[in-house]
Amino acid sequence: MRLVALDTLAERVGLKRGQGAAEARAMCPSLDVIIDDPAADRAFLEGLADWCDRYTPLVALDGKDGLFLDITGCAHLHGGEKALVNDVLSRLFLLGIEARAVISSSAGLSWAVARYGSAAVIAPEDAERVLAPLPVAALRLPAETAALLERVGLKEIGDLLQAPRAPLARRFGPSLLLRLDQARGHADEPLSPRLPVPSFSAERRLAEPLQEEEHILELARHLSGDVRLSLERHGEGGRLFELLLFRVDGRVFRIQAHAAVPLNDADRIAALFRERLQAVHDDLDAGYGFEILRLSVLRSERLDPAQEDFSGVPDESQPLAAFADKLCARFGPDCLTFATLAESHLPERAGGFAPLTDVAAVIGSRPVDEKTFPENRPLRIFTHPELVEATAEVPDGAPRSFNWRKTQYRVARAEGPERITAEWWIDGEGHPTRDYFQIEDQEGRRFWLFREGLYGRETSSPRWFMHGVFA
């Protein structure tokens, strides 16, 4: 067992990462060792990233123990960069979290100073002065590269700043100079936010936390009005909305609601979240209350204005869309489905069901013509064809009788075969061919059977399957 993480007190005692637990106990008999749980650490870091959304939506994960926050254009909302750092650290301290935070013009400089320095806010012109006394490990170099630099006497970043660049590149590779330029702010280092940035959003910071669901819904309705103004200004309607609830103890709840048509109506948007809150009521623990509420539009589409008729309804899709939104918000986006066609000549792949996410597209879809879907298909097609025992003439004769589901049927009439070859680009070239027959037994019941494999060419014993019934 070895140490993988240390707190400040353990570092002050002299313990090191990678050190054996027995040796560490010998140095510090009162050492408290906790078994490492990477999954729990990751979940905690994800929760901390959600909490940081109160400062900026651009939050990126940095390994196992760090976060990058792009606060460009956000610092003035919190009283400036110094006030923002103090607010972050003080709130985390009250939550029982020990953290270090640095604001600078580059991610590499902030990373280096947060782990090896002591500054809080670094001006761009002070970057090299702050970097110079830090160890070379602060450049996020591989451990072997950092050890090789120390072995040749280049122990601090200041030593690299004074050394010629060409010999450094030849000896240690281009990654060393890239990391050095990133820390100085001379090379771009784009950050990848963990979540997409919303197109539109509105937020309320509350003096007193909210606990009651009705108060939350009322505030969500006001936020919907603010979002509506932004949507109307850009001529768009929201399709995916998200309500963020920041609880006092640091936990963040994300509640998403889908719309079947683009929406910019405040009452309709608020109604979505009324249904969603009722659906997640048991999982939404208000605790001591929510201090920040934010409504965001994660996906929007062009919304053309429509002239209402005398009934007050713009078009026929609105009542259906309202009904779909209500059900999907309460029971999930997959509760409503509609039949769809696929580009395949195999019956089980030619159709299916898809979630009803766009009501206007379903209403405006063209009717299926005979060329797209033949009319000689049975009323019910099985998702998985069922094996039957059939007696038929070889090589291409229709069945004379067959046993299906422990019942024997005698064939009175048969029509076929309709030959359908396999889709070699999906099933492979060796997949057998199918010969379909429309069968009517002596009592007038009609079935759809197929023989799998061509007798004498693909197999010596073809198998028969029931694929559908006509009535």
TrEMBL record:
Signal peptide annotation: none
Record keyword DNA damage present: yes
UniProt domain UmuC: residue ranges: 8-111
Catalytic EC class: transferase
Keywords for this protein: DNA damage
Keyword Cytoplasm: no
All copies of domain DNA polymerase Y-family little finger, residue ranges: 199-296
Cofactor: Mg(2+)
EC number: 2.7.7.7
Reactions accelerated catalytically: DNA(n) + a 2'-deoxyribonucleoside 5'-triphosphate = DNA(n+1) + diphosphate
InterPro entries in alphabetical order: DNA/RNA_pol_sf, DNA_pol_Y-fam_little_finger, SulA_CellDiv_inhibitor, UmuC
Coiled coil: none
Subunit annotation: Monomer.
Cited function: Poorly processive, error-prone DNA polymerase involved in untargeted mutagenesis. Copies undamaged DNA at stalled replication forks, which arise in vivo from mismatched or misaligned primer ends. These misaligned primers can be extended by PolIV. Exhibits no 3'-5' exonuclease (proofreading) activity. May be involved in translesional synthesis, in conjunction with the beta clamp from PolIII.
Name by which UniProt lists this protein: DNA-directed DNA polymerase
Species: Sinorhizobium chiapasense
